[in-house]
Design goal:
This protein is an alpha/beta fold. It has eight helices and six strands, in the order E-H-E-H-E-H-E-H-H-E-H-E-H-H. Helix 6 links the parallel strand 5 and strand 6.
Length: 252
Protein backbone atom coordinates (compact mmCIF):
# COMPACT_ATOMS: atom_id res chain seq x y z
CA UNK A 1 0.00 0.00 0.00
CA UNK A 2 1.22 3.48 -0.89
CA UNK A 3 0.48 4.86 2.58
CA UNK A 4 2.83 2.48 4.44
CA UNK A 5 5.45 4.19 6.58
CA UNK A 6 8.29 2.01 5.26
CA UNK A 7 8.85 0.50 1.83
CA UNK A 8 10.97 -2.51 0.88
CA UNK A 9 12.07 -2.22 -2.75
CA UNK A 10 12.70 -5.77 -3.93
CA UNK A 11 14.81 -6.94 -6.87
CA UNK A 12 14.21 -10.61 -7.69
CA UNK A 13 16.80 -13.17 -8.67
CA UNK A 14 16.95 -15.48 -11.66
CA UNK A 15 20.24 -14.72 -13.36
CA UNK A 16 18.68 -11.64 -14.98
CA UNK A 17 17.08 -14.13 -17.38
CA UNK A 18 14.23 -15.68 -15.37
CA UNK A 19 11.10 -13.94 -14.04
CA UNK A 20 10.20 -13.79 -10.38
CA UNK A 21 8.83 -17.02 -8.95
CA UNK A 22 5.80 -17.38 -6.67
CA UNK A 23 8.00 -17.62 -3.53
CA UNK A 24 9.54 -14.25 -4.35
CA UNK A 25 6.11 -12.82 -3.58
CA UNK A 26 4.82 -15.23 -0.92
CA UNK A 27 7.95 -15.33 1.27
CA UNK A 28 8.33 -11.55 1.43
CA UNK A 29 4.58 -11.17 1.91
CA UNK A 30 4.70 -13.54 4.88
CA UNK A 31 7.61 -11.62 6.41
CA UNK A 32 5.82 -8.30 5.92
CA UNK A 33 2.57 -9.69 7.38
CA UNK A 34 4.45 -10.86 10.48
CA UNK A 35 6.22 -7.51 10.85
CA UNK A 36 2.98 -5.57 10.49
CA UNK A 37 1.22 -7.85 12.97
CA UNK A 38 3.95 -6.91 15.43
CA UNK A 39 3.24 -3.21 14.96
CA UNK A 40 5.28 -2.18 11.91
CA UNK A 41 3.78 -0.44 8.88
CA UNK A 42 5.70 -1.69 5.85
CA UNK A 43 4.90 -2.61 2.25
CA UNK A 44 6.89 -4.18 -0.60
CA UNK A 45 7.46 -2.65 -4.03
CA UNK A 46 8.62 -5.21 -6.60
CA UNK A 47 10.63 -4.26 -9.68
CA UNK A 48 9.76 -6.25 -12.79
CA UNK A 49 12.97 -5.42 -14.64
CA UNK A 50 13.39 -6.30 -18.31
CA UNK A 51 14.93 -9.74 -18.64
CA UNK A 52 18.02 -10.63 -20.64
CA UNK A 53 18.57 -11.13 -23.51
CA UNK A 54 15.76 -8.71 -24.42
CA UNK A 55 17.66 -6.05 -22.48
CA UNK A 56 21.23 -6.12 -21.26
CA UNK A 57 23.42 -4.20 -18.84
CA UNK A 58 23.10 -1.39 -17.79
CA UNK A 59 19.37 -1.31 -18.60
CA UNK A 60 18.34 -3.19 -15.43
CA UNK A 61 20.56 -0.95 -13.29
CA UNK A 62 18.84 2.09 -14.76
CA UNK A 63 15.44 0.57 -13.96
CA UNK A 64 16.48 -0.10 -10.37
CA UNK A 65 17.72 3.46 -9.90
CA UNK A 66 14.57 4.90 -11.45
CA UNK A 67 12.30 2.84 -9.18
CA UNK A 68 14.14 4.25 -6.18
CA UNK A 69 13.84 7.74 -7.65
CA UNK A 70 10.08 7.19 -8.15
CA UNK A 71 9.71 5.97 -4.56
CA UNK A 72 11.38 9.10 -3.21
CA UNK A 73 9.97 11.69 -5.60
CA UNK A 74 6.51 10.43 -6.53
CA UNK A 75 5.57 8.37 -3.50
CA UNK A 76 7.05 10.97 -1.19
CA UNK A 77 9.14 8.59 0.91
CA UNK A 78 12.25 9.72 2.73
CA UNK A 79 15.42 7.70 2.13
CA UNK A 80 15.23 6.54 5.75
CA UNK A 81 11.81 5.04 4.93
CA UNK A 82 13.29 2.77 2.23
CA UNK A 83 14.93 -0.65 2.45
CA UNK A 84 16.56 -2.26 -0.59
CA UNK A 85 16.30 -6.04 -0.89
CA UNK A 86 17.61 -8.37 -3.56
CA UNK A 87 18.43 -12.03 -4.00
CA UNK A 88 21.04 -13.56 -6.31
CA UNK A 89 20.92 -11.42 -9.48
CA UNK A 90 18.65 -9.08 -7.53
CA UNK A 91 21.36 -8.79 -4.91
CA UNK A 92 23.77 -7.91 -7.71
CA UNK A 93 21.33 -5.22 -8.81
CA UNK A 94 20.89 -3.88 -5.26
CA UNK A 95 24.66 -3.53 -4.93
CA UNK A 96 24.73 -1.80 -8.30
CA UNK A 97 22.12 0.71 -7.15
CA UNK A 98 24.07 1.36 -3.94
CA UNK A 99 27.21 1.87 -6.03
CA UNK A 100 25.39 4.36 -8.24
CA UNK A 101 24.34 6.44 -5.24
CA UNK A 102 27.98 6.93 -4.25
CA UNK A 103 29.64 6.71 -7.69
CA UNK A 104 27.08 7.73 -10.35
CA UNK A 105 27.19 5.53 -13.44
CA UNK A 106 28.12 7.57 -16.50
CA UNK A 107 25.01 6.50 -18.45
CA UNK A 108 22.45 6.92 -15.64
CA UNK A 109 21.36 10.25 -14.12
CA UNK A 110 22.69 10.72 -10.56
CA UNK A 111 20.32 10.32 -7.62
CA UNK A 112 21.18 12.56 -4.70
CA UNK A 113 19.90 11.48 -1.27
CA UNK A 114 19.20 13.80 1.63
CA UNK A 115 20.06 11.00 4.08
CA UNK A 116 21.04 7.31 3.91
CA UNK A 117 18.58 4.58 3.02
CA UNK A 118 17.34 2.68 6.05
CA UNK A 119 18.79 -0.71 5.14
CA UNK A 120 19.91 -3.11 2.43
CA UNK A 121 19.27 -6.86 2.53
CA UNK A 122 21.44 -8.86 0.14
CA UNK A 123 20.49 -12.52 -0.15
CA UNK A 124 23.13 -14.64 -1.91
CA UNK A 125 24.20 -11.68 -4.08
CA UNK A 126 25.77 -12.64 -7.41
CA UNK A 127 29.11 -10.96 -6.83
CA UNK A 128 31.16 -12.18 -9.79
CA UNK A 129 30.56 -13.82 -13.16
CA UNK A 130 33.79 -15.79 -12.79
CA UNK A 131 33.19 -19.40 -11.77
CA UNK A 132 36.66 -20.36 -10.54
CA UNK A 133 36.27 -19.68 -6.80
CA UNK A 134 37.09 -22.74 -4.71
CA UNK A 135 33.49 -22.98 -3.49
CA UNK A 136 32.42 -23.93 -7.03
CA UNK A 137 34.45 -27.12 -6.63
CA UNK A 138 33.65 -27.66 -2.93
CA UNK A 139 29.89 -27.25 -3.32
CA UNK A 140 29.31 -28.50 -6.84
CA UNK A 141 27.18 -31.43 -5.63
CA UNK A 142 25.42 -29.48 -2.88
CA UNK A 143 23.96 -26.52 -4.77
CA UNK A 144 21.28 -25.91 -7.38
CA UNK A 145 23.59 -23.62 -9.38
CA UNK A 146 26.74 -24.14 -11.39
CA UNK A 147 28.66 -22.80 -14.38
CA UNK A 148 26.27 -24.54 -16.81
CA UNK A 149 23.57 -22.03 -15.83
CA UNK A 150 25.61 -19.05 -14.61
CA UNK A 151 27.82 -18.68 -17.69
CA UNK A 152 25.03 -18.34 -20.29
CA UNK A 153 23.04 -16.09 -17.96
CA UNK A 154 25.97 -13.71 -17.46
CA UNK A 155 26.69 -13.64 -21.21
CA UNK A 156 23.04 -12.79 -21.94
CA UNK A 157 23.02 -10.06 -19.29
CA UNK A 158 26.31 -8.48 -20.29
CA UNK A 159 25.98 -8.83 -24.09
CA UNK A 160 28.73 -6.51 -25.39
CA UNK A 161 29.18 -4.49 -22.19
CA UNK A 162 32.42 -4.41 -20.24
CA UNK A 163 32.66 -5.65 -16.67
CA UNK A 164 32.86 -2.96 -13.99
CA UNK A 165 32.24 -2.39 -10.29
CA UNK A 166 28.49 -2.00 -10.83
CA UNK A 167 27.87 -5.34 -12.54
CA UNK A 168 30.56 -7.36 -10.73
CA UNK A 169 30.82 -6.16 -7.13
CA UNK A 170 33.80 -8.43 -6.52
CA UNK A 171 35.79 -6.20 -8.90
CA UNK A 172 35.45 -3.26 -6.50
CA UNK A 173 38.10 -2.64 -3.84
CA UNK A 174 37.11 -1.99 -0.25
CA UNK A 175 37.49 1.76 -0.76
CA UNK A 176 34.66 1.69 -3.33
CA UNK A 177 32.18 0.87 -0.55
CA UNK A 178 33.22 3.72 1.71
CA UNK A 179 30.44 6.25 2.35
CA UNK A 180 27.66 3.86 1.30
CA UNK A 181 24.34 5.70 1.28
CA UNK A 182 22.64 3.18 3.55
CA UNK A 183 22.49 2.90 7.31
CA UNK A 184 22.70 -0.87 7.84
CA UNK A 185 23.50 -3.81 5.56
CA UNK A 186 22.61 -7.49 5.93
CA UNK A 187 24.39 -10.03 3.71
CA UNK A 188 23.26 -13.65 3.73
CA UNK A 189 24.48 -16.82 2.05
CA UNK A 190 24.41 -20.57 2.49
CA UNK A 191 27.64 -22.34 3.33
CA UNK A 192 26.78 -24.96 0.69
CA UNK A 193 26.35 -22.61 -2.26
CA UNK A 194 28.86 -22.23 -5.08
CA UNK A 195 28.83 -18.42 -4.77
CA UNK A 196 29.68 -18.35 -1.07
CA UNK A 197 33.41 -17.59 -1.35
CA UNK A 198 32.77 -14.58 -3.61
CA UNK A 199 29.97 -13.38 -1.31
CA UNK A 200 32.18 -13.65 1.76
CA UNK A 201 34.93 -11.64 0.09
CA UNK A 202 32.58 -8.83 -0.95
CA UNK A 203 31.09 -8.86 2.55
CA UNK A 204 34.57 -8.61 4.07
CA UNK A 205 35.38 -5.55 1.96
CA UNK A 206 32.10 -3.83 2.80
CA UNK A 207 32.44 -4.62 6.50
CA UNK A 208 35.94 -3.10 6.54
CA UNK A 209 34.59 0.37 5.67
CA UNK A 210 30.93 0.12 6.71
CA UNK A 211 30.78 -1.17 10.31
CA UNK A 212 26.98 -1.51 10.38
CA UNK A 213 27.21 -4.56 8.14
CA UNK A 214 26.06 -7.98 9.30
CA UNK A 215 27.07 -11.13 7.42
CA UNK A 216 25.30 -14.43 8.09
CA UNK A 217 26.53 -17.66 6.48
CA UNK A 218 24.15 -20.52 7.29
CA UNK A 219 25.54 -24.04 7.55
CA UNK A 220 23.67 -26.64 5.52
CA UNK A 221 21.85 -24.19 3.25
CA UNK A 222 22.52 -23.73 -0.45
CA UNK A 223 21.84 -20.90 -2.88
CA UNK A 224 18.99 -18.48 -2.20
CA UNK A 225 17.36 -20.77 0.35
CA UNK A 226 14.62 -18.31 1.45
CA UNK A 227 13.10 -18.69 -2.02
CA UNK A 228 14.49 -21.98 -3.37
CA UNK A 229 13.44 -24.02 -0.31
CA UNK A 230 9.69 -23.38 -0.80
CA UNK A 231 10.12 -23.94 -4.55
CA UNK A 232 11.17 -27.52 -3.88
CA UNK A 233 8.51 -28.20 -1.27
CA UNK A 234 9.88 -27.24 2.14
CA UNK A 235 7.09 -25.92 4.36
CA UNK A 236 9.17 -24.38 7.13
CA UNK A 237 11.04 -21.13 6.41
CA UNK A 238 14.79 -21.46 5.94
CA UNK A 239 17.19 -20.20 8.58
CA UNK A 240 18.05 -17.31 6.28
CA UNK A 241 14.39 -16.34 5.98
CA UNK A 242 14.12 -16.35 9.78
CA UNK A 243 17.27 -14.23 10.03
CA UNK A 244 15.84 -11.65 7.63
CA UNK A 245 12.72 -11.20 9.73
CA UNK A 246 14.70 -10.99 12.98
CA UNK A 247 17.16 -8.48 11.52
CA UNK A 248 14.54 -6.21 9.93
CA UNK A 249 12.16 -6.08 12.89
CA UNK A 250 14.15 -3.72 15.17
CA UNK A 251 14.99 -1.49 12.21
CA UNK A 252 11.39 -0.53 11.40
Amino acid sequence: KKTADKVIINFHGGGYCLPASLPHFSVLSDIVDQLNAAGADVAVLFLSYTLAPKASYPHQLSQGVELLRYTLRDLGKKPSDVLLCGDSAGGNLALGVLSHLTHPHQSIPPLELSEPLRAAILIAPWASFDTTAESFRRNQYKDCLGPAALNPWSRAFMSRAQTDNYNQPLNAPASWWKDLKVDAVLILAGADEVLVDDIKEVARRIESVHPKTTTIIVTGESHDSPYVSPMIGYKEPSEQAKAIRSWISPRL
